[in-house]
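hey so i finally got around to running the thing on that chain from the lab meeting. sorry it took forever, my laptop kept dying and i had to restart like 3 times. anyway pasting the input first so we r on the same page abt which one it is
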Amino acid sequence: MGDLYVWLISFFFIIALIVMIVFQLMCLADLEFDYINPYDSSSRINKAVLPEYFTQGALCILYLITGHWCMALVCAPYLYYNVRLYTQKQHLVDVTEIFNQLHWEKKQRLFKLGYLIINLFLAIFWMIMTALEDHDDY
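ok and heres what got predicted. didnt touch it at all, straight out
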C-alpha cells in the first residue's frame, strides 16, 4: 500500500510541474500576442522557475528514496538540464532579450511539457499496476 501512496504523490508532483510549465507558456504566448509587456512577462516566468526546479528535484529524490530506480533514471536528464541551467545562470528570462529569445524559450518549455507528459503516463501506469498488485494480495 505504501507504493501506491508514493505513486499518488509523484502524480501530484508531476501535475504541479505541468501547471508551472503551462503557466510559463501562457506568459510567453501573452507576450507574443502583445497582451502583456516584457517586464511583467519575464517577472512572472522568473517567479515560477525556481519552484519548478525544486519540485523536479523533490520528485527525483522521492523516487530515489523509495527505490524506484527506473523512474529516477527517467527524471535524471530533466533534473540535469535544470541544474546545468542554474549553475550557468541561464535559468532566468532576461527582460531586455525576451523578444529575441521568445522562440527558443517557447520551444524549451514545450519540450519540457512533452517530457513531463511522458513521465505522467509512466507514473499513472505504475500507479495502476501497483493498485492491481495490492488488490490481488487481498
